[in-house]
Write a structure and sequence with these properties.
By secondary structure, the protein is of the alpha+beta class. The chain has ten helices and six strands, in the order E-H-H-E-H-H-E-E-H-E-E-H-H-H-H-H. The chain has a four-stranded mixed beta sheet with strand order 2-1-4-3. Strands 5-6 form a two-stranded antiparallel sheet. Helix 2 crosses helix 4 and helix 6 runs parallel beside helix 8. The chain starts with a strand and ends in a 5-residue tail after the last helix.
Length: 227
């Protein structure tokens, strides 16, 4: 399970965050919400969504904003054998300058782009690639966490399971994959439903699930007694 760690328990919301025009009010509110949680609080977007009016999609976007500027960080957690078992989230009220400085576009005497710090195009490219990799890794963890609700022993670092997550994201997109996973999990235990307690089993039983849901939809239409 993912845990929340707060760098400064008694910190107030930093003015730099509140006055940053590139961060939405929703992301600032999420920071304040997380700041109120105890150390080692079980971090889950589903859990946050259950306590707030925003859905998981909205929370994901707010988290991405905080991560982009360094106010929310995530790091992999390994067991004693070095196996990846999840991710911990760190709320930081004073992120490093590298993560908070953003380019300012506009006309200058020399033309082009200026920034608060003179980074090369190569530096920006590296940062962009790193952010992309972290985002993709987070999407995989999101899927694994959903399966952890029905399979607590699932191994986050299992290469086969992670590859299945990545393949589904590449094929269907993140949001549709999340929707399908929730749909598959919702029918586990139902009579005649295919069994899939891991991403790998789900991915290779997608055809079976399609048949099952098509039949279920057909039966529901026949039994629909609503006026």
């Amino acid at each position: 399970m993912s845990k929340l760690h707060i760098r400064n328990r008694y910190a107030t919301i930093p003015n730099e965050l509140l006055n940053n025009q590139n961060i939405s009010l929703k992301a600032k509110g999420l920071f304040a919400y997380l700041q109120s949680k105890p150390e080692d609080w079980t971090f889950s977007k589903a859990r946050i969504a259950a306590q707030l009016k925003e859905g998981e999609k909205s929370i994901t976007k707010a988290m991405a904003e905080l991560k982009e500027f360094g106010y929310l960080q995530n790091k992999p957690v390994q067991d004693k054998k070095g196996k990846f078992i999840g991710q911990d989230y760190i709320l930081d009220d004073n992120p490093s300058p590298l993560t908070t400085e953003t380019p300012v576009l506009g006309d200058t005497d020399k033309g082009g782009c200026i920034s608060k710090k003179d980074y090369s195009k190569k530096d920006y490219k590296k940062k962009e690639l790193l952010y992309s990799e972290n985002k993709f890794s987070q999407e995989v963890v999101d899927i694994m966490e959903l399966f952890a609700n029905i399979n607590p022993s699932i191994q986050y670092g299992n290469k086969t399971q992670r590859k299945a997550c990545k393949d589904m994201i590449k094929k269907f997109g993140y949001e549709d994959t999340i929707r399908m996973v929730k749909q598959v999990i919702s029918v586990q235990g139902e009579q005649y439903a295919p069994i899939a307690t891991t991403p790998y089993k789900m991915y290779y039983k997608l055809a079976d699930f399609k048949v099952y849901f098509d039949k279920k939809k057909s039966v529901n239409k026949v039994l629909d007694l609503s006026l």
